[in-house]
Amino acid sequence: MAKLTKNHKEALSKVDKNKLYSLEEASSLVKEITKAKFDASVDLAVRLGVDPRKANQMVRGVVTLPHGTGKDVKVLALVTPDKEAEAKEAGADYVGLQEYLDKIKGGWTDVDVIITMPSVMGKLGPLGRVLGPRGLMPNPKTGTVTMDVAKAVTEVKAGKIDFKVDKTGIVHAAVGKVSFSEDKIAGNIKELLDTLNKLKPTASKGVYMKSVYLSSTMSPSIQLDTKI
Q: Which of 46, 103, 107, 132 is deepest in the core (most CB within 10 A)?
């Protein structure tokens, strides 16, 4: 077993594993216990009372975090020539079509989000094996397949993220950076949790939001009170 560092021991000593922290307490504590020398991401893990194997209990959606993610999101816009200027003006990092389809075919996936148009989706089908496992396949449900390319690029750059419950019933999402103020971290968490509550499947019985844990890249996890 790896030996705990002095900083990690100190962080563990400040987290009461038997306590359910309020949103404000957790947002403050995650900043206090993170000793990384870089601006660590703040992540949320929400265990839902759903069975993701059943289509009527799948939870997937998008949310625009009011204070952004703190991450410089690299966007690829796979668009026809008439939409290229629009995508570039909105801030897309890479804009084009065939040249990028060829690059992806060769294994290139150095982007965070791909935005495209309905007419281009047919060309992406054969690339599913490359894009699918990396969560990069555009989807109309998440707003990444659209004719309003500029709006989609702007929203992603501003902090729009998509999430999906994994096979164990957990939703993982980045909700900011340790450099954010407590209020901004708390505001982003609240927005995500409110969105998850709105997406509760009617087929989900019993407790829906089973547990919520907050952590940074290098910190122990903090359990939140789900009744927030």
A: 46
